[in-house]
Amino acid sequence: TDLLTRFGDSSSTITLQHEPLLNVTLSQLASPRPVVRKRAGTTIGVLATVISDTLLHRLVERILDQIDQVDGLGKSGKKRARKAHNTKERTLSASDLRSADTRSLIRTMCTVSGTVGHRLNQGHIDRIVPIFLRFCDPDDAVTGDDEDYDSDEVMGDADDTAGMSEEAAAAMQIELRESCFAGFESFVMRCLTLVQPHLDQIIHSSLAYMRFDPNYSYGDEDDGDEDAIEEDEEVEDEYSEEEDEYSDDDDMSDEEDDENWKVRRSAIRTLTSVVEATKHDPSKLWIAEYAWRKNSEKKATVAEALVNRFKEREENCRVDIIECFTRLLSYTVSAASSGVLVLASSSSMDDDALAASGTVVVDLRSNVSSAIVKASQKQLNAKKGGERSKSSAIALLSTLCLAPGGVGGSDQITSIFTHVKSILNVDDDAKRRHVSANSKSLKLEALCLVRIMLSCKKHDATHIKSALLPILLPEICKCVNEDWYKVISEALRVLMEVPNLMVMGSASKSEMDEVANSLYVAIEPRLAEHDLDQEIKECALSASASVLSVLHASLSTEQKNKIFELLLERLKNETTRIAAIKTLAKIGDAAQTNDDLDLSPIMNETLGQLALLLRQQSRGLKQTSLECLDTMVLCLGSDGDVGMDDGLFDSVLKDLGDIIADADLHICHLSLSASNSILKARPATGPLVKSHILPAALTLSKSPLLQDPALSSLLVLLEEMITSKAITFDKLRDMLVEQMGNNSAKSGKQVISNLAECIATIAAVATSAQQKTFIKSTISAIKKSADSNAQTTQLNLLVSGDFGRKVDLSSMPGVADSIQQIYDQSFDSSNEDIKHAAALALGRASVGAIDAFLPGILAALEESSGKKQYLLLSSLREFIHCYRGMEGGNLSSSVPLILPHLEKNCENDEEGVRSMVAECLGSLATLKPVTSRSNQRQPSSQASLPKYWSLKTKIIHKDTTVLAKFAAVFSALATTFITRTSKRARSSSSATTYINAFLLLFLLNINTKLHAATTYTLLLSQTSKRGCPFSRSYCTITHTASTQVLCMAILSFVDFPCRKRCPKMLNDFNLA
């Protein structure tokens, strides 16, 4: 085995010996020694990984031929075997096969499928599964509850094991069945596609043998109503703890001799593998029904069967059952969040509509949730139940909290909290008697369950509050004084959720005061102690932040000052300062919306400490300090506080100015934001901002790296400096213009664009007189420089456009006509950069004055051609993009004017014009509110993009009922495009444009993996039908590429047919 593992596929000498090795190891499977048979099977499993496909096929056939000669187990299994033997002749003599050989062969087959299951073919699986079912036929699975149960029938297979005792025969049957289910588990996990035709049989057999317990009766399983369950619980409660101790000894002898639980465990593991294999779409396990009980017409789904078997007497099996159902429930919730299925909501009308449309609806709230809660409570209440069962039940309840409706209503919540209390509250005598059942780990899991119930939004907050305060809150506060640090930390996390619960649960003033005092008494000692685990310190800080933020009105001044004092101590401590900074930031957020939360006692010292931390080298520390500083300064009043040290701002702003650089744009963004907050909170700090922050800000403005949040923060700061009169508009504008002239090298487009936006931003907040003077001087500068100074012209053009986006130029007499004339003249410039800048400026200026500029753009679009037409479409695209970024922008009235021009240019000869039209269409379709033109007649040869607009909002919000309609629209578009021929290439170019627009619409604006995959699948199916598969030359595009590049690559695939499809593209597309 070691030799094959290390050199089996690399040494030519060993490769030549594969066939002899195979023959030798196969012969050893019939060895009388069990250890030899087991090691031979292990060797064959390793050999299967290195032999050729031919030898692998021969190996599987030989093993199956020998297993095929063996009769099955039980009446039904033997019937299967006789039926199979009658249809073909036996190739080997079965008289030489012993039961031990059969076990070895099955175990070996399981080993082979586990190692090289992906190399097996459909024929192998089609032979293996029926053979294995002979040994685990569902009709042979019996329990002591079956009315027609016959113990002689179960042991009747001993006739086939001559010379073996009844105990040995029973052990042989158990091992055979256990091996078969291990094989099923391997097939499902390794080769799900091949085993798919037999999956229902495997599930049926697993469900049947999950209850295989012929030596024990659970009572009538069909009477599983609530009354029977409650009656069982009442009977169990009558027994005292002393009687339970004696009953353990009575059951010991029976359980030691009964090993049928091994079969049940292997069947449960097979079901678990089915759940894992179908985790992306587990709907079948909630819908398909199976007759899981012998001679019974009652059927059950996999989910129902698992819940019904929570009463399993063997703890190993019981834990596996609960964990299997927990996985199924977790995967179901995940599938519902991704849109694969729908979990039933409170509105039955919506659920019925979804079900009618073909969507799978899983209803957990009607009966499943209550059954889960009752079964879990029974496990938690069991006095003989092991710790693992209780732990699994707690994990199941935690998962159920994520489903609609959570664990249920007030009664269920109260019952669960009562059981959790019994776990948390253990007196000294109970600790000595039930140490394992109430261990520290079980306490930890119980606290996690309570935290999830408090934090999730699936329950009624009033019910949670009413059950928590009298039952559980005192015990949770006691857990803060436990010995194990994990229990203490989790208890503090639970207490962290209590204040928000009090608000959502509409608690009274007296309840809030009582809870606030209880939380303070529990948290303050842990916050004050120094010799504690780091996790406890951080949790204590977070809990104190929650109490101060929400329940500050219920705390006394002395209590609040004590917490503030402890927070400052933690801020000065190197190990806890980051956690303390986050705590202060949270308190600062609350103080901004609550005037009664006064932070003045700690404001001076907090800002001073944060300023010192900005000088540290740790980037994470700087980032956290800047975020906290930004929050804390907003808590200051503009009039100033009596005890505030004005000299402190000089130090803080100086430290902020030192870290404003393009080396780290995120830190730069946070620094600019903090500076702006200081200036906004204290306008008197304007001179300090001008001296410490402005020089660094001006240097940053000419950086080619400046973009996104850093650019936005810079614009906000410059605007605030003008508003607060920290600097005059004319002076700041001149300083910004000088930044481009200070560059020794030629400025790039990004630098010019950033400077233009900065100048336009400060101009937009200037006085009316300054604005008129500014725009006139800008127009004059454009006329003066023209092509002689291209960079200055580009800057002024972009400044005019950005200014027009913020200010209506039509309100200034003569300005709109003058600027329109300048844009038209710039389109004829010999400099391409000036042309592009003029196109962008025209589009941006149109946002502020639609009536003044948009009609001119559309009119010129009809009269022009070639390059100018492309520039005008660029202006139109920029206009739509700018409108899309505006809040409350409504372009509904302009869509009827724009759309005809775009449709007309879909068939333009220029590829660049058609691509620009596609981008305009895609951007136009994403505007809100959604505009519909479905009532207008469209050409019959094309599916109309406007027809889809009315559906777009529903698709964005994952309305699954609309996906089918979109699929039909897109399929029609794709078909129109694909069916074109070389003779009709020009007439079908409009379809190309529509395809482009749809892809842009879906990929750039609908961030849903499911919908993107749907689009891709539809396009793939349409191209495959027409022999136009995807190009292999684009395989190098990965999911790290931009979505837009990926979109254009897909269009290239369609435009340039090749001979091979690209499977890797599908994976990359889904990832993107």
Assembly type: single chain
| Major beta-sheet overview | 2 strands, antiparallel
Figure out the total of helices.
Answer: 53
Low-confidence stretches: 87-97, 153-162, 222-256, 428-437, 928-991, 1000-1046, 1048-1072
Global mean pLDDT: 76
Structural class label: mainly alpha
Strand order within the widest beta sheet = 1-2
- Gross morphology is globular
Give the C-alpha Rg: 37 Å
- Approximately how much beta-strand content do the residues carry? under 5%
Helix content: 55-70%
Tell me the distance between the termini. 43 Å
Provide a quick synopsis of the model.
The chain has 1072 residues and is mostly helical. Helix content is 68%, strand content 1%.
Question: How would you explain this protein's 3D organization?
Answer:
The chain is an all-alpha fold. It is built from 53 helices and four strands. The strands form two sheets. Strands 1-2 form a two-stranded antiparallel sheet. Helix 19 links the parallel strand 3 and strand 4. Helix 47 (911-925) packs across helix 50.
Topology:
Blueprint: H1 2-7, H2 12-16, H3 18-27, H4 34-48, H5 53-68, H6 74-86, H7 99-116, H8 122-135, H9 151-154, H10 166-190, H11 192-195, H12 199-210, H13 226-238, H14 241-257, H15 261-277, H16 284-287, E1 289-290, E2 300-301, H17 302-308, H18 315-337, E3 342-343, H19 348-356, E4 361-362, H20 368-381, H21 387-400, H22 410-424, H23 428-433, H24 440-455, H25 461-479, H26 485-504, H27 509-528, H28 534-551, H29 557-572, H30 577-593, H31 600-613, H32 619-633, H33 647-658, H34 665-681, H35 686-692, H36 694-701, H37 708-723, H38 729-741, H39 749-764, H40 768-785, H41 790-806, H42 815-826, H43 832-848, H44 850-863, H45 867-884, H46 895-904, H47 911-925, H48 946-956, H49 963-978, H50 989-1005, H51 1009-1025, H52 1043-1055, H53 1063-1071
Parallel strand pairs: 3-4
Antiparallel strand pairs: 1-2
Helix pairs in contact: 3-4, 4-7, 5-7, 5-8, 6-8, 7-10, 8-10, 10-15, 12-15, 15-18, 18-21, 20-21, 20-22, 21-24, 22-24, 22-25, 24-26, 25-26, 25-27, 26-27, 26-28, 27-28, 27-29, 28-30, 29-30, 29-31, 30-32, 31-32, 31-33, 32-34, 33-34, 34-37, 37-39, 38-39, 39-41, 40-41, 40-42, 41-43, 42-43, 43-44, ...
